[in-house]
Design goal:
This protein is an alpha+beta fold and about 190 residues long. The protein folds into 2 domains: about 35 residues; about 150 residues, Lipocalin (Beta Barrel), CATH 2.40.128. The chain is about 35% helix and about 25% strand. An 8-stranded antiparallel beta barrel has the order 1-2-3-4-5-6-7-8. The termini are far apart.
């Protein structure tokens, strides 16, 4: 009886190790997520956009992650609410090299354009006029504080971003100066 119990104990101890993904499995998942499952050559020769941007057009919203102050972690639980609001972005991919996001704001809209450079790196561009007007900081506003706010917003709106798509309905954008932007596709109605 003791031998049988010891055998079950040994099996219980090694079972999680046997069930864990191998290094090769984990590496395959990493290459799938960060390189679209492409070879190095395919990744660097602008092939990444073909898979990343495929069937991406539609309405998307930015998700909220963990909040340390309240302990609330929504992780998309409020997606339907935001999809029905001005928080919704219209996303389009006119070709395999370009991604656009257009706002749906009540006081004016602007478009963010992402152009594939190589791999998962995109150049982000926003026309300053419509962007600042939509945020209430157009050139008609004056003062040192307004100038500083404009400068900060423009520095955050243009630059290089890494774009990943871990699933059909999730889009992730990372930049060197900020928290990752995680977006979810709105349900089609």
């Amino acid at each position: 009886m003791r031998l049988c119990a010891a055998g079950f104990l040994v099996l219980a101890m090694i079972a999680p190790a046997a069930a864990a993904d191998t290094i090769a499995d984990q590496a395959e998942s990493a290459y799938s997520l960060y390189a679209g499952g492409l070879s190095q050559e395919g990744f660097l020769t602008a092939t990444y956009g073909l898979t990343l941007l495929k069937n991406i057009s539609g309405n998307w919203v930015r998700l909220n992650g963990p909040d340390n102050k309240t302990g609330v972690e929504t992780y998309g639980a409020d997606t339907d609410k935001f999809c029905k609001s001005n928080a919704r972005l219209t996303v389009a991919a006119p070709d395999s090299l370009t991604l656009t996001m257009t706002t749906n704001l009540p006081n004016g809209n602007f478009t963010l354009t992402y152009t594939l450079i190589a791999g998962s790196t995109f150049g982000e561009h926003t026309d300053a006029g419509p962007y600042l007007n939509a945020l209430g900081l157009g050139l008609d506003k004056t003062g040192d504080n307004v100038d500083q706010q404009r400068a900060l917003l423009l520095s955050l709106a243009n630059g290089l971003v890494q774009i990943y798509r871990p699933s059909e309905d999730i889009l992730v954008m990372t930049r060197d100066r900020g928290y990752p932007v995680v977006m979810a596709r709105c349900p089609t109605t």
